[in-house]
Amino acid sequence: MPEKKLKRDDPYFIDFPKRIKAIQKEMAKHGIDVYLGSRLRTLSWTVDAFMPWRSYIVIPPEGLPTAITFVIDAARVQDDSWLDQDHILGYGPMGGQDQVSLLSGLIKPHLKAGKGIIAMETGMGTYLPEGHLTLFEFVMLKAALPKATFKNAHDIIDRLSLIKDAGTINRFREASRIVDIGHKAVYEAICDGGYKNMTETEIAGLAAYAMRKAGSEWEWSFTGGNEIASGYRTGLAAGACTPASRKKLKTGEPLMVDLHAMFRLGLGDHSHNYFLGKATKRQLWHAKNFIDLLHKCLKAYKPGVSPTTLADEMLAFTEERGFQDYMVPGFEHGIGLMGDEWRIGLNDGPFEYWTNPDHVYKKDEMLICAVQYACPEENVGFRYENPILITAKGCEFLSKFPLSIDVV
Amino acid sequence: MPERKFKYLSKEWTEEVGKRLKKDLTPEKMKHITSSMLTIYTNCPDKKTRALYYKLKDGVVESVSLVEGALPKAEFSITADYDMFAKISRAELKARSALMSGKMTLKGNLVKALTLSPTVDRLNEVIAKVPTEY
User: Fold this and answer.
1) Do A74 and B79 touch (CB under 8 A)?
2) Is the pTM of this model over 0.90?
3) Structural domain tally of chain B?
4) B60 lies in a domain?
5) Domain containing B48: what range?
6) Is B85 a domain residue?
7) Does the pLDDT value for residue A2 go beyond 50?
8) ipTM attached to this prediction
9) Could you tell me if A237 and A376 are in contact, meaning their C-beta atoms sit under 8 angstroms apart?
10) Does residue A99 belong to the interface with chain B, where contact is any CB pair within 8 Å?
11) How many A/B residue pairs have CB atoms within 8 Å?
C-alpha cells in the first residue's frame, strides 16, 4: 500500500495502511465481505482528510479502500489524503455517478453472486454530523444489492480507534498548543479594560485569527466554532453549549472562552474563564470552588478509573464544599480525530449510543475533561475543557494555559 | 455530386471517424491526454449492442474501433441508447444534459471525467461533422 505525504519519522505520521489492514482483519473475523463506512469519525480515521460533505468509504476484504465524496471536493480530499486519485472518487447527479450507483458498483465485486455481508454504520447520536447511514440510503442500497445482508458493524472502528497512536496524540498536542495561542491573544486583548465595547463574537474572531495564524485549520466545533459566553449566558441552567452572541462584555460579569483549533484532524478544545474588571467575594467563592474541583479532577484521571467512579469522587467533594447545586454532573466527553466527539468508548452502556458510565479508562485513551459550573440565579458560570491523555499512572492535559479564573 | 454519407456505426463510418480525429485533433488540442474510452450503444436498430473504443496516447487518437460482443477494458465507459447517441451526434442534445438526466451513464472517475470533458467535446465536434446516415 502506498504511503503519501508524511514520512514515518514525522511526529504526526499515522500508519493508515496498517489501520486498514486492522479493519480488514476484524472484517474477516466477523465474516464481513465489505465494509461501508459513512460516519465522519470513520472517514477521518481512515482517509486522513477532512470530509465535510456526505462521504463514504468502501473497505474491501483486502487491498486499498475507496472513499467517495461530493465531486466538488473530491480533488481536494485526494490532495490531503494518503489515498491516490483512483481511490478517492467524486459523486454527482449524473447517470452512473450518483451515490448509490457508485457505492453498489464498488461493493458488488466483493459479493459472491450478489450474496454476502455488508458492514454499515447506523445508530443514534447526540452529535448531528455523526454520519450514520440514513434510512433512504439503506433502502436504496438494499434495492441495488437485494441478495446481500447488511450488518451494523461500527463497533469495529470504534474499538480500533479507542487507543490513540503516537501520531494522533501529537496532532492533538499541536492543536492544543495552538489553542493556547488563541487564549493568550484573548487575554492580551481583554486585559486592562481592553474588553470594554467588545462583543462575544469579537472575542471568538480574534481568537480564531490568532489560532489560524498559528496554523489551525478550523475552529472545528459544530457548536458554533469558538464558544464565548458572558454574564448570564455563562450560567445557563445545565448548559454547556454557548455559540458566541452579539452580547457586549460588561464590567463585573464573568466571561467564558471556549476555543477550538484543528491540526491535521487532531482537535484542540480548551476553556478559560474570567471576571471582567472586578469580581465580588461571592463570585470569587464560586471561582475557587471551580478551580479546586478541577485540580482534583485532573489528578483523578488515570487507568482504571471510570466516569462513574470519577463523578462519585468529584460530586462528594462538591457536597463537602457546598456547591453541589451548581455542578452539571458530568466530567468528560469523548474525543478522537475530527468527527469523533461526545460518546466515550464503545456503545456498550445501559443507554444505547451514550457513554457507558462503567467504561474503564486505559493507557493512551483520550477524552475531553469537561466540567461545567452553572449558577443561573447569580448569572455566573464557568466551563473547563481540556483534551487529556490517559498515561500509565495518571493523565497528561494537553492544553497548558494556566489553570485559573482571572480578574482582568 | 451529393456528399457521401456514412452509415452510423458502420465499419466505414468508424474508419472515417478515426481518420478525421487523427487529422483534426492535435496533441495540444487534446491536452496530451492518455486515456481510453468506450461509448456503448444499446438498442441499435438491429437490437444489438455495439461500442466504439477510443484509445488516446499523449493527445494522439491512436485508434477508434467498433466492438461487438466482449468489451475491452477502458478508463471511461459511457452507455446510452443508440437514439440518445444519435441525438448527441446530430447536436440535438448535449452529452452533459443526457448524463444529468440519467439517460446516459458514465463509469469511471468523475473528477477526471469532468476535467477531460472539454477535450472530449472537441472529439465529439469532429465526429458530428462526419456526414452520417442514421
Assistant:
1) no
2) yes
3) 1
4) yes
5) 6-129
6) yes
7) no
8) 0.85
9) yes
10) no
11) 47
